Amino acid sequence: NRTGLCSPSITISGWFNTTSLNTNHAIIGNWWDGFGRIFINSSNQLDWRWIQTSGISRAIASTGQVTQANAWYFFVATYDNTVTPNLATLSLYNATGTLLSTNTNNTSVDIQRNVTAQSTCTGSLSIGFTGEATVAYYFDGLIDDLRIYNRVLFPGEIQALYSGGSGCIPQ
User: Fold this and answer.
1) Dist CA 152 CA 92 (whole Å)
2) What pTM was estimated for this model as a whole?
3) Rounded distance, CA 7 to CA 4, Å?
4) Element spanning 77, H or E
5) CA triplet 111, 77, 93: central angle to 5 degrees?
6) How far apart are CA 41 and CA 99, in angstroms?
7) How many CB atoms lie within 10 A of CB 159?
8) 97-113: per-residue pLDDT in tens?
9) Could you give the CA distance from residue 60 to residue 121 in angstroms, rounded to a whole number?
10) Judging by DSSP bridges, how do beta strands 25-30 and 36-40 pair with one another?
11) Cβ 20 vs Cβ 69: under 8 Å
């Protein structure tokens, strides 16, 4: 069921371990008609971007740097279109649970409006890859336990995901 990808509110979380730095690495993407893409950019920041139908890439949120290759990191991205202005948060944790960086952005990017304008929400969901017309981004490393929810999770629910809680978070 793809409707969660086109929801006015969304949480995306997961673990990654990149084997190289200083290059673009796509973790997850739903580029043309969903939440955009989450990737490590060439400056080693975790970056969340949306591309408009005009082809212009717009930042939703970015975090501090991924400083070490061959190390596990946990990320959480939330977007809430039920508040004004739209609220996006991207957080990065290390393997011991320390919050390394978080960025909350009152963004002008309206994922729900952009999705509605494209009406179908049928674009492909990619894990470890995302592309544009002239370039493709592949993930160099490991990705684990990616989750997508059609609502913003509460802090305790995010902690449960980080701590390796089994099963799904209740809807």
Assistant:
1) 16
2) 0.81
3) 5
4) strand 73-80
5) 165
6) 19
7) 13
8) 888 988 887 765 555 54
9) 19
10) antiparallel
11) yes
**pLDDT the model gives residue 36:** 76
Cα gap 113→144, rounded to integer Å: 30
What is the structure's pLDDT at 162? 83
Burial class (CB in 10 A: 0-12, 13-18, 19+), 112: middle
On the CB side of 128, how many CA atoms lie within 13 Å of its CA? 11
Task: Report d(CA 131, CA 146) in Å as an integer.
Answer: 19
Lowest-confidence segment of 16-25, 87-96, 110-119 by average pLDDT: 110-119
DSSP calls for 89-123: EEEEEETTS-EEEEEEEEES--HHHHHHHH----S
| Band (115; pLDDT cuts 50, 70, 90) | very low
Residue-wise pLDDT for 71-84, tens only, equals 999 999 888 877 76
Spatial CA neighbour of 82 closest among 13, 152, 153, 1: 152
What would the pLDDT profile of 121-157 be if each residue is shown by its tens digit? 556 778 888 766 667 778 999 999 999 888 889 888 9
CB 49 within 8 A of CB 21: no
Residue 135 corresponds to which amino acid? V
Host H or E run for residue 162: helix 155-162
At position 8, the amino acid (one-letter code) is P
